[in-house]
Amino acid sequence: MVFFSPLIVMDKRLQMFLTSFLLILVSQASAFDTCPKCGNLEVPYPLSTNENCGEPNYRVYCNNGTLQFSSSRGLYYNILSINPSSNKLIINPPRIQKTQCFTSDFITEGFRIDDNSPFNISTHNTVMLFNCSSSIFLSPLNCTSSSFCRLFEDQMEEGSSCKGTLCCHFLKDSSMTSHRIKVRDGGCTAYTSAVDVQPGLSLDQWNYGIEIQWLLPN
Ligand SMILES: *[C@@H]1O[C@H](CO)[C@@H](O)[C@H](O)[C@H]1NC(C)=O
Ligand SMILES: *[C@@H]1O[C@H](CO)[C@@H](O)[C@H](O)[C@H]1NC(C)=O
Ligand SMILES: *[C@@H]1O[C@H](CO)[C@@H](O)[C@H](O)[C@H]1NC(C)=O
Ligand SMILES: *[C@@H]1O[C@H](CO)[C@@H](O)[C@H](O)[C@H]1NC(C)=O
């Protein structure tokens, strides 16, 4: 036993050294937890722009100073704003082409998030679909002549290429898939979305975007 006591003492010192070393490592690691700003947007935890910060499932992309969200089909959408306290972000809807009623994400059949992603499309989005085939007229789509999409086609420059097409709007509610907004040949070929539409606001005052929320990491 006597033989071992110096070793035990050494061990204690080593332990103290290691403990403080580890403490420094841990404090540095947590300093890396939140990602750096991207352009003028803060990137709150758990969003992750690289492998050294945030959580890997919460990947967003900082491309040349522009923060972007990737659909599961690999198209990038600019992130317009982030609300870290409600775990929500808003992305820019795809542009509707000037000459044809197609959104820029028509090639990937619209916007899609992976089913097992922590992100989903929130229930605050009013989605307008354009150039629809009559086969998609299911409730709760509102495809009447008073639908918001008519106003969008008539009043907004961006909707002008969709003027006169069959169109519908709906509130993305909890009865629907929260992982995609679909466009396709033979369905609808363009869409846009606005967040928290207030009755009475004119269309140019709407907050155009797709609101996405995320589950907190365990
Ligand atoms: C990156 O952004 C800067 C400033 O906005 C711009 O001048 C430059 O052309 C961009 N580079 C690329 C590769 O897009
Ligand atoms: C509407 O969609 C069809 C395909 O479903 C396409 O052929 C047609 O050009 C589109 N209309 C407009 C106005 O872009
Ligand atoms: C369709 O939407 C418009 C605008 O919100 C509303 O006034 C109208 O009552 C709706 N129609 C149906 C059938 O839901
Ligand atoms: C979407 O995510 C929120 C939390 O981020 C969750 O409460 C909700 O149940 C999810 N909705 C669906 C349909 O998965």
From TrEMBL:
Signal peptide per UniProt: 1-31
Keyword Transferase on entry: no
Compartments where located: Membrane
Designated name of the protein: Wall-associated receptor kinase-like 20
One annotated GO molecular function: polysaccharide binding
Main location: membrane
Ranges annotated as spanning the membrane: none
Organism encoding this protein: Ziziphus jujuba (Chinese jujube)
Record key words, sorted: Signal
Keyword Signal: yes
